[in-house]
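Build the 3D complex.
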Amino acid sequence: NAGVMQNPRHLVRRRGQEARLRCSPMKGHSHVYWYRQLPEEGLKFMVYLQKENIIDESGMPKERFSAEFPKEGPSILRIQQVVRGDSAAYFCASSPTDSPLHFGNGTRLTVT
Amino acid sequence: GQQLNQSPQSMFIQEGEDVSMNCTSSSIFNTWLWYKQDPGEGPVLLIALYKAGELTSNGRLTAQFGITRKDSFLNISASIPSDVGIYFCAGQGGSARQLTFGSGTQLTVLP
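Done.
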C-alpha cells in the first residue's frame, strides 16, 4: 500500500508566480490535511478537506492560498503571487477517519 | 489556540543510553501522537495514544498519555545511531480534528 504521495518534492518559484502542490492520499483515505513547516519549527495546520469539501480552513491565510480535493485526482494546495515568506516545507497528511495520521514527504517551496 | 510545550529542545546522548522527552499542554487533548522526522522527510508516526493513562510500547519506544490529559512523554531505551532525528509530539483535542504539534526535540546519539 503506497503511502501519502506528494509532488513535486522541490519547487522553486519567483516572486509573483503561482505554486501548485499536489497530494495523493493513501488508498482508501478520504480525509486530507495540509500543514506548513518553517525551518526548525513544528508543523502548523493549514486546512482539512474531505472529498469535494473544505471542512476547516482556519489555519490558511485568507488571501492567495486555496485548497481543493476533487472527487477524482489529488488534493491541490495553490499559492498565488508567491512571496519570500511562503518559502517553507508543505506537508500533506491523510487518514481514513477525521484524525490525521500519515504524512507525505512534503514539498519544499523556495521563492526567489 | 491550543499550544504545546515540548522539552527538551535538543539532547546529546551516548549510544546505549535511555532518553526521555515530554510535552505539556494548556488544554486537554483526546489523542496524543509521537512522530520522528528525518532531514528532508515527512514525520513518521511512532506511537498513538487514545486514552488517559494509556502506556504503549513500540520496540524500544514507550509513550504515555498523562492522566490529566494535558501531557505525554516518550522514552527511548538503549539508544542507537539511527535514533538520531527530530521527535515531535502532537495532540488533538476538543472539536478540532487537526493536530497541534510541539516544537520538536532534536536528538543526537554519540558513538
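The first strand of chain B starts at residue 4 and ends at 7.
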